[in-house]
Every structure is written in C-alpha cells, then in structure tokens.
Design goal:
The protein is α+β, with helices and mostly antiparallel strands. The protein is built from 10 helices and 16 strands. The longest helix is centred in the C-terminal third of the chain and has 15 residues. The chain starts with a helix and ends with a strand. The structure holds succinic acid (SIN).
C-alpha cells in the first residue's frame, strides 16, 4: 500500500490503529507523535488555552511574534483574521501554537488570506488536497519520499522565481525531529529584508532603488545540489528549468508600503546593468547584511504550530541538522500573488 501524506495525517490524528500501521509501514521509528494525544496538550485543553482575547507577543527582534488566544480549528471571524493580518504585516513571521487542524481546516484558514497556489513540485502534494505541499524527509513503503525533504536550506523567499510571487506562506507541523535529549531539530530561520533595507546606508539605498535582479528556481536548485550532491529532488519541468524572472531589487509591500531588499544569493543570478563581479559582490553583501546572526528569528518547532510568514519582508531557511530516523512532516500552503514593485 502506498502511503501518502494525507493518509499519514489521518492515521496520526484520528485513528490509533492506523497510527500503529503507519509506524510499521514507514520503518518503525517514532518519537511519539503518531497517536491522537500527540499534540502538546489534548484537543479540549488546547481549545481552552486558545480561546480568549487574541494577543501578540513579540520576539523582541525585527521579526517574529506569537499570537495567542486563537483556536483556528473552530473557525475564525473576520475581525480575528484582520487582527492576524495586521500582526503578520508588522512582525513578518507569526506562530500560533497548539493548533489542531485537519487538512480542510488548514486550507479554509489559509484561504482567508488569499488565493492558494498550485505548487511547482506537483509530485509532493497531499493526496486529495492539492493546495497542501507535503514537506517531509519520511520515506514511504514504496521507497519514495513522502514529501519534499528540503524546501530550502539556503536563504530564500517563496516564489522569488515566479512572475507573481506568493505574498504569504503557512506551514503546519505534524511531526518534528528531536535529538537524544528531546531537543527539537529542523528549526526554520528568518531574517528581515525590511530591517536590512533600513540598515543600508543612504548611498547604497539610492544605488539599489532603480536596479532589477534576475531570479530563477533553477539557480536555487543548482545551489542546493552544490551544497548537497545527494539531495533527492525530481527534475524541474522544462518550463521551470528555463524560466528566469526579473524583479526589482527593492520591493515595496503592497499593503504597508514598507520597502525591503528583494535579492537572495541563491535565487538571484545577477543585478542587471552591473558588471558581473560587482553584481555578485553586491548580492552577497546584501544577503550578509540581512542575515546578521543577531538579527535572526529562529523558530523552534512544536507539533501543532501553525507558522506563517510574509515573503515580501523576510528570507527564510531550514536548519540542516537532522536525518532519518529523525522524522519531519509539515503541510505548507503558499498564497496570494502580486507583481513585485
Ligand atoms: C520552506 O522553505 O518553505 C519550508 C521551510 C521548512 O521546511 O522549515
């Protein structure tokens, strides 16, 4: 029997017997999530903890905050969506912890923020829910990866390589790897490209403002393979392999009007109009500035986290510090599209 993400999810949250079956099918290893009580708290307690007046607790950094007092599974009113959107625009990255979401509930919630994308890696969509991309290092019983094992261990922003990049991404944690001491692995790191823009000297801001960059998915893939030749990814379709898009090097947020640097070392092959060497040096300089270690929000995952980020104002990357039998399984949506300006 071929195991897919959707079946896995059903087994994990709803059917203890199925969970046992899955443990067997996928190689027997578990760190304890494949049972209905796998969330940090049971469903009822989670509902109680998340009900109340929504509040935002900032990380104290340029980006990153937790929203408390919202239980997404029980449906969310328009005022709460507005509250979350405002917080997202202000903090670029938000986490809502201890959520208990079925795939349809995750999709319904994400739809409130914009149109959902059909993803560029169709091989890894959650069966029956093409709006959800499965991100996982788990190998199914057919010997094939369940999901995209590595959606990006290089700094990137989702959809950078597309004509109309996604404004938002949302990632829901079903299984998180741990080390022998119970410490979560596979953190996701975020860096503010808006704060990076603010930190640029005015002369460099003026130089960058009129520039445009060439970006492509093929360039990101080349860099991922250069760093990890063993990386398993299906080859890109001819359309994606040959697609190069030109976007402004500085992006303006369509809602807040905030400016942000919009080049990334892996995706951006060059800044048009500059000599090759100068272009590469400037791209590297900008990324180094945005990703200074003390500016980074590092998300340490818990099962039940719904993490969302604003691609217009941040870069992100996965920390590459886990491997099977440490299992990682998340469902991602990417949504809302805009031509960068
Ligand atoms: C992504 O790069 O979109 C996903 C990051 C992650 O897997 O943590």
């Amino acid at each position: 029997m071929k195991l897919n993400c959707n079946q896995f999810w059903l087994c994990s949250l709803e059917h203890p017997a199925g969970a046992a079956l899955n443990r067997h099918q996928t190689g027997g290893y578990n760190h304890g999530y494949n049972k209905p009580s796998g969330l940090p708290h049971g469903g009822k307690r989670q509902q109680e903890e998340n009900v109340g007046t929504p509040e935002v607790i900032s990380s104290g950094l340029a980006l990153g905050a937790e929203v408390r007092g919202v239980a997404l599974g029980s449906g969310v009113d328009a005022a709460t969506i507005g509250f979350i959107k405002d917080a997202l625009h202000q903090h670029s990255v938000l986490v809502l912890r201890n959520q208990r979401l079925t795939p349809p509930q995750q999709i319904d919630f994400c739809r409130r923020f914009g149109k959902l994308e059909a993803h560029s890696h169709p091989r890894y969509l959650v069966k029956g829910h093409p709006e959800l991309l499965c991100i996982s290092n788990i190998i199914g019983d057919d010997g094939e990866p369940l999901g995209l094992a590595d959606a990006g261990t290089v700094w990137h922003t989702d959809g950078h390589f597309d004509d109309t990049p996604n404004l938002y991404s949302m990632l829901y944690a079903l299984e998180i790897p741990h080390d022998a001491h119970g410490q979560a692995l596979g953190d996701t790191l975020f860096a503010s490209t808006a704060a990076g823009w603010d930190r640029l000297p005015e002369t460099l801001q003026n130089k960058l403002l009129p520039l445009k960059a060439e970006n492509s998915l093929a360039a990101i893939n080349r860099e991922l393979h250069r760093r990890n030749p063993a990386l398993q990814r299906p080859p890109l379709s001819a359309a994606w392999a040959n697609k190069v898009v030109v976007h402004p090097a500085v992006r303006t947020h369509p809602v807040t009007g905030r400016k942000a640097i919009y080049v990334a070392s892996a995706a951006s092959a060059r800044l048009l109009g500059l000599p090759e060497q100068e272009s590469r040096a400037l791209i590297e300089q900008l990324q180094t500035l945005c990703t200074e270690p003390d500016q980074i929000y590092r998300h340490r995952w818990q099962v039940g986290d719904l993490l969302m980020w604003d691609n217009c104002t941040c870069l992100h990357r996965l920390s590459n510090d886990f491997a099977l039998p440490q299992r990682r399984l998340l469902h991602r949506t990417t949504l809302d599209f805009a031509v960068p300006f």
